[in-house]
Design brief:
This protein is of the alpha/beta class. About 30% of the residues lie in helices and about 25% in strands. The protein binds adenosine-5'-diphosphate and magnesium ion (MG).
Length: about 290
């Protein structure tokens, strides 16, 4: 296997981020997390349930709500247009404009978050109506069909309602929705955990292919480390709120440094063979710029 080299321009810098739940016995769910996400990179975030992955994802999006509070740190988005945006200082309206269009999120359990009484077309077009009001009706229709096609769903499904779709298809629709404004970063929190293994693999393959094609960066969150080894360029391992190891996926697989990473790897006996290469297609590239 050749080493994965990705474009080194950072798109997101997280520095010393701490998130506290201000409850009776305050919990610091994220402790001084620091990492950089490069443009076009797939960064895996691994760690067992309860270690703080979702809390981190919400904070990066500024979607956290009380009792969660960002206690320290900086989150800076480096826009492809050259400007730097300090996410923690954005006002409500700026944040609204920013979310989905620059940085979007696929939530844990998202496939159950679609509105049951509205068609897929309406839900996709509503994002465009809100964020791209300048588009005409025809363009909106075309974009909705196009983004659905990209995630592998026949545009005939635009007329469907969520309950008429399989879980895998609903999850693809959620990914389409997160992609429709062409964000530079997508955060995906356990996007395929609820799906069966075959559907999960299909969707992961699609995400990697879309990344190759469109060049967005992904923070991919799951407790499933073997899965991350297959699709990620780099992996961050989280333990009780702290990122304890961060490195190139192939290197981490060959020679994990932290005891916890070793333990995680050892707990998956199926990892004795080679790292699956069937999902990672075309990402061993020289330079994406
Ligand atoms: N609403 C809440 N109130 C208090 N503590 C919380 C709340 N949500 C999460 N936590 C704490 O934050 C920790 C991390 O949770 P979470 O970010 O959901 O972990 P993960 O996504 O890795 O499973 C939990 O172990 C829990 O202690
Ligand atoms: Mg979670």
């Amino acid at each position: 296997m050749t080493a994965t080299t990705i474009e080194r321009r950072p798109v997101l810098t997280i520095d010393d981020l701490s998130v506290v739940y201000d409850v009776e016995q305050p919990v610091t769910a994220v402790k001084g997390a620091s990492f950089e996400l490069s443009a076009g990179e797939i960064l895996g975030l691994a760690g067992e349930s309860g270690c703080g992955k979702t809390t981190l994802a919400y904070a990066v999006n500024r979607l956290h709500k009380p009792p969660a509070r960002i206690a320290s740190g900086q989150i800076v988005f480096h826009d492809a247009d050259g400007s730097d945006v300090d996410l923690l200082t954005l006002g409500h309206d700026e944040l609204r404009a920013f979310r989905w269009s620059k940085l979007s999120m696929v939530f844990q359990g998202a496939m159950n978050a679609l509105n049951p009484v509205t068609s897929i077309r309406t839900q996709l077009e509503d994002v465009l109506l809100t964020h791209r009001p300048e588009l005409g009706k025809k363009e909106r229709r075309e974009r909705a069909a196009d983004v659905l096609r990209r995630v592998g769903v026949d545009p005939v499904r635009l007329r469907s309602y969520p309950h008429e779709l399989s879980g895998g298809m609903r999850q693809r629709v959620m990914i389409a929705m997160a992609m429709i404004l062409e964000p530079q970063v997508m955060i995906m929190d356990e996007p395929t955990t609820a799906l069966d293994v075959v559907v999960q693999r299909d969707i992961l393959r699609e995400i990697v292919r879309l990344r190759d094609e469109l060049g967005f960066a992904v923070i991919f969150i799951t407790h499933d480390l073997p899965l991350l080894l297959e699709i990620s360029d780099r992996i961050a391992v989280m333990l009780r709120g702290e990122i304890v190891e961060l490195g190139d996926a192939a290197t981490m697989y060959r020679s994990p440094r932290h005891e916890y990473t070793k333990k995680l790897l050892a707990s998956f006996p199926s990892l004795s063979g080679s790292r699956g290469s069937f999902i990672r297609t075309g990402i061993d590239r020289e330079d994406a710029s």
